[in-house]
Amino acid sequence: MTSKVHRIALFGAGRIGQVHAANIAAHPRTEIALVVDPFGDAGAALAARLGVPLVDADAAFADDTIDAIVICSATETHADLIERGLTSGRAVFCEKPIDLSLARVEALLDSVADCDAPLLVAFNRRFDPAVAALEAGIRAGDIGDVELVTVMSKDPAPPTLAYLEGSGGLFRDMTIHDLDIARFLLGEEPTSVVATAAAITSPDIRAAGDFDTACITLQCASGRMAVITNSRRAAFGYDQRMEAHGSLGTLRTENVPASTLVLERADGVRRENPMHFFIERYADAYRLEWAHFVEVLDGTVPPRATGEDGRLALVLAEAAYASLKGGRRVAVP
Amino acid sequence: MTSKVHRIALFGAGRIGQVHAANIAAHPRTEIALVVDPFGDAGAALAARLGVPLVDADAAFADDTIDAIVICSATETHADLIERGLTSGRAVFCEKPIDLSLARVEALLDSVADCDAPLLVAFNRRFDPAVAALEAGIRAGDIGDVELVTVMSKDPAPPTLAYLEGSGGLFRDMTIHDLDIARFLLGEEPTSVVATAAAITSPDIRAAGDFDTACITLQCASGRMAVITNSRRAAFGYDQRMEAHGSLGTLRTENVPASTLVLERADGVRRENPMHFFIERYADAYRLEWAHFVEVLDGTVPPRATGEDGRLALVLAEAAYASLKGGRRVAVP
Amino acid sequence: MTSKVHRIALFGAGRIGQVHAANIAAHPRTEIALVVDPFGDAGAALAARLGVPLVDADAAFADDTIDAIVICSATETHADLIERGLTSGRAVFCEKPIDLSLARVEALLDSVADCDAPLLVAFNRRFDPAVAALEAGIRAGDIGDVELVTVMSKDPAPPTLAYLEGSGGLFRDMTIHDLDIARFLLGEEPTSVVATAAAITSPDIRAAGDFDTACITLQCASGRMAVITNSRRAAFGYDQRMEAHGSLGTLRTENVPASTLVLERADGVRRENPMHFFIERYADAYRLEWAHFVEVLDGTVPPRATGEDGRLALVLAEAAYASLKGGRRVAVP
Amino acid sequence: MTSKVHRIALFGAGRIGQVHAANIAAHPRTEIALVVDPFGDAGAALAARLGVPLVDADAAFADDTIDAIVICSATETHADLIERGLTSGRAVFCEKPIDLSLARVEALLDSVADCDAPLLVAFNRRFDPAVAALEAGIRAGDIGDVELVTVMSKDPAPPTLAYLEGSGGLFRDMTIHDLDIARFLLGEEPTSVVATAAAITSPDIRAAGDFDTACITLQCASGRMAVITNSRRAAFGYDQRMEAHGSLGTLRTENVPASTLVLERADGVRRENPMHFFIERYADAYRLEWAHFVEVLDGTVPPRATGEDGRLALVLAEAAYASLKGGRRVAVP
To answer: Which helix (H) or strand (E) holds C230?
Structure first.
């Protein structure tokens, strides 16, 4: 097995950038070579901590020792960076989404169709040990034919209005993870979508024309279906549960408490809350996602989530919006 | 408190009739006076076991000592028996549904509108200790404002084709329980319905034009919503879980295993399956439902599920069919 | 199969007598013929409710129609009633203990050794569905050879001092149930006992010379052992958990909550407390225990817990006291 | 806050040495400066992987840049290394035990009594998030006065005979962790010990004069007690559960499954096994233990487990052996 250490250029030193930076640094086969982040102090601080230079994007792409780029920068930069990375022969690891515009995503995928370098769209949940084991169980036949998938997905609290404005809206920002998981578990492409949504948790979200509570049902040609339930607010923490129901039974995952501590008193039996949000809940997923990308860099496996996966999740999000608008079931193009 | 023993005429000696018969007999304040069941041997056997006469309907209604009737007979007899019972001044306990025809239900409710005798439509799940505690928790403000209700409801196995033919179809036969629970927990009437369904589990169900797998989403004027997920088949037993999600948190019920036994071995940690079906799972609910009806007979409380509740659940089932047919969200009349 | 209805004389109309009375009355093959209870109003009230006479013991034994006696009266009456019952040819169902004096128990068992009528010593926990399934799992080989049994057994709150005075002390009154379960699950007689105990929960218990917190370890000739942990106080309810650890794994039971309701809020994930005490927790066990006794009455099975089982549990309790007193491991005679 | 990077000499490159090496390397404030391991290839391999020299002990102590030593070498080297470390002014992190001989431990602690450098005896379980939260809950008064502590502790499989020979026996090798936890949770020193033990799992262990199954009960002057249950074999994985029972309720920890995946089928509801052994189960504990040691190095907190804690756990293990031998309760000196 190769012992090459892959040199990584990290774009974006925000919250998720720092998560990936730690995993890249901890992996014996990868090292961060440079950081790119034109905004504020986070980039400089991270670069200093890692002992690597903070440079601009041009300098990063000019560095011939860079094997791969990791894109954690603002959403509107993703498509361009993917294009520059792939066309310059670097492997690309990109946080979702590729872009909020389906047209832009499709144009990008066309333009890089002939590139040899691999693109991993970082749908982190696919790498969570419980979710991965659930999917492996389905493929192993543990529940026979899949008939119904349910995804319960609630954030602990709504994001800031500033965040919401650039987010693309509930379906493109939050539900897109669940749409990807639904496709991942169904094992068949959905052919129609029907959505119900509301802004209940705050007047601000309603004023912004966005939603915070939703149910999206997907159906495939075979009849099998997936049900996604979303909320931007779960007072007890990050609610992330998935179920696949099949002819022989059900596979499902439960929330992960901070610890197994139980307190039993006259007023009830109390356990700890689920881990608060994605940084804690999916810490293992991020680590395993990076280990997978190293295998992609080694050329031993193809990316487990591709640009096409990113596009198809966005197609479903657009169909969900069309369903809401028209009050009807919408065929997936 | 009154110590009157209420005398009951039981119509129908089938599976559910026998459940109610045992509870009526075990209650210190009620006794079965007679059994009516014109079909087969079940009526005679039950009457003999109880030591009461097996008579026909006319004889039952002619008996002035009868205080109340319990209707567990075939669906098509329900509306007429309700009418005869209420107009003759007897309290009526009727298994769901009132009738498979919404027009018939509405005509009946009109015709008995002036009757003083009470009618309990036996939506048994409302009386399950966990479900009742969930609803009480909502009313007590434990989770703040309700935003989202989910009902997972799967039968262990499809019924016979003969049963399906007279059932009225998935929504009128099975989902109707879930529609009632959704209304019960939402605390606000749904104003629109959208449904997705398929026949997946057997070619027979598909051939019969019925469905076995479905997702129905209800929405209220406030935006709050309920999601019902159904299947006619859950290989591990009766899957009955309800959740209410609100501004302060979530209340939910889990399946009830046959016992708390756990077997831990090298091949995993195994617990017992959920109770197999409604007779076992809702044994306590049936008992408590009867205790409630005795209070109704005493005149101390109104029925906790009325003819109007029966009608509204059927209205939602009809709207779900209309949604399926039209491929669109349907307003509830 | 016989359809004989067995006629029962019930001795003792207190709390546990009323539990058995309800089960006897609800069983299609048994009826209470008369009640004996010389103290207070409970006997008269129960007899009136059942519509049977309240008589004295002599009258009860003089009634030739009585098939069996159920002994729920004060502990000091048990041995005499067992003797009168068995020597007069009645089957006997006796609440534990047979007597607080081992000498008296042994004398009794000698005196009735030649009686044909069966004696069931009502160790109720053996009939609990989870415990029975645990024991059946052991016998089926699910965990291979049993190596270690643990019994966690805590009452919700200490009894009154008046009760304690006549109780025989912690080991003879409370631990005796756990000693029986340990024997039941070990499948081999213990040959030595070592005990640790203290009075912690109240000065009254200490003043009375009794204990409220204890650990008793039993060991068999093969080396396998059982550990019993007791407390007279568990603020959250009745704590009743059993484990058997063997060469292939572990079988264990958990506490049974009042319902499966879960409340998830910012301050934790809360479930309902275990059922409060034995009347609720072992309701099924009492019902199944009675169903077993009916089979004993029919002559189709031998009693699942005998006078000898009662004696052996008391022998272990005495050994535990001897261990405490001598500060050493005590051989079981 | 200081940003000094502490330089560490690692003694022992075996299994646990590699765990600590990874945590030391991953911590931003510590680095491994050199490795000492005279046996086999593990030391050279680890040193090469870390890019640091492999030296002998004399060279390590001669290096003035070393701030602290981490002792993961063979048990018989521990006491000498602690002494050399502390007397040369280095902080010492030492895997348990200090030594298998109580006399040697006491001589060592006397000889280093005047050293200023801190010694952390690495009782890893104290740092597990669930155990730490349990202990914090006790100190916060969540369960009132502690009355009873139980520690269930079973290894997945017996170690090799070669390991057993140098282990000091069950109580000094395995139970010592549980004795430490019992002391940690009781909050009062035990004054007596009584033990029961057997060799059941294999003839080899019996032949070696060692035990594999045991129950040890500790009691304090106040009467409160702790019960430890041990086995060298749990076919389903590492069984590590702790409970503290107090006047207001119970705090307890459960086993941690590999993931929350649940498979529900006709043959039962199956979850994943507990994490297999200490490397997996206590991965977080080892990481947090190291973070604690960095605070000790910074001088901001005293060691959370000291040489005296190591001594007292060994005193209890010796008392347990004395109890077994004498068949009696043994006072703790």
So the answer is: strand C225-231
Distance CA C43, CA D218 (A): 47
Identify the DSSP state of C201.
S
Contact in structure between C161 and C272 (CB atoms under 8 Å): no
Structure-block tokens of residue D197:
């033990």
Question: For position D143, what pLDDT does the model report?
Answer: 98
Return the structure tokens found at C45.
């009230």
Q: Residues A283-317, buried b or exposed e (16+ Cβ, 10 A)?
A: ebbbbbbbebbbebbeeeeebbbbbebbbbbbbbb
Q: How many CB atoms lie within 10 A of CB B233?
A: 22
Chain A: nearest CA to B158, how far in angstroms?
12
Residue in the structure block whose two tokens are 């009457």:
B47
Q: Which residue of A has its CA nearest to D285?
A: A259
What is the ipTM metric for this complex? 0.95
Residue of C nearest to B249 (CA): C265
Q: Report the alpha-carbon distance of residue C158 to residue C176 in Å, rounded.
A: 16
How much is the pLDDT for B333? Answer: 87
Closest CA to B175 of B209, B215, B146, B202: B215
Flag whether residue B261 sits within 8 Å of chain C, measured between CB atoms: yes
**The pair of three-digit structure tokens given for residue A327, joined into one six-digit string:** 């009050």
pTM: 0.95
Q: Compute CA distances B288 → A50, A328, B24, B163, D141, whole Å.
A: 66, 42, 11, 28, 39
Measured in Å, how far apart are chain D's first and last C-alpha atoms?
A: 43
**Element spanning B197, H or E:** strand B190-198
> What does the alpha-carbon distance between residue D77 and residue C119 come to, in Å, rounded to a whole number?
65
What whole-number distance in Å separates Cα of residue D75 and Cα of residue D278?
Answer: 18
**CA–CA separation, B216 and B210 (whole Å):** 15
Between CA B81 and CA B92 the distance in angstroms is: 9
Count Cα atoms within 13 angstroms, Cβ side, for C148.
Answer: 27
CA B48 from centre of chain: 28
Closest chain B CA to residue A154: B245
H or E segment and range at residue B16: helix B15-26
**CA neighbours closer than 13 Å in the CB half-sphere of residue B257:** 23
- Residue A145 amino acid letter: D
As given in the structure block, the two tokens for residue B72 are 């567990």
pLDDT at A1: 42
What's the DSSP call for residue B124? G
Percentage above 70 pLDDT, chain D: 99
Residue of D262, D275, D287, D288 to mutate for A, most A C-beta atoms under 10 A: D262
pLDDT in tens, D206-225: 999 999 999 999 999 999 99
Separation between Cα atoms, residue C20 and residue C18, nearest integer Å: 5
Q: Which domains does chain B have, with CATH numbers?
A: 6-117 (3.40.50.720), 126-280+313-331 (3.30.360.10)
Length of chain C, please?
333
Q: Count the neighbouring beta carbons within 10 Å of the beta carbon of residue A104.
A: 16
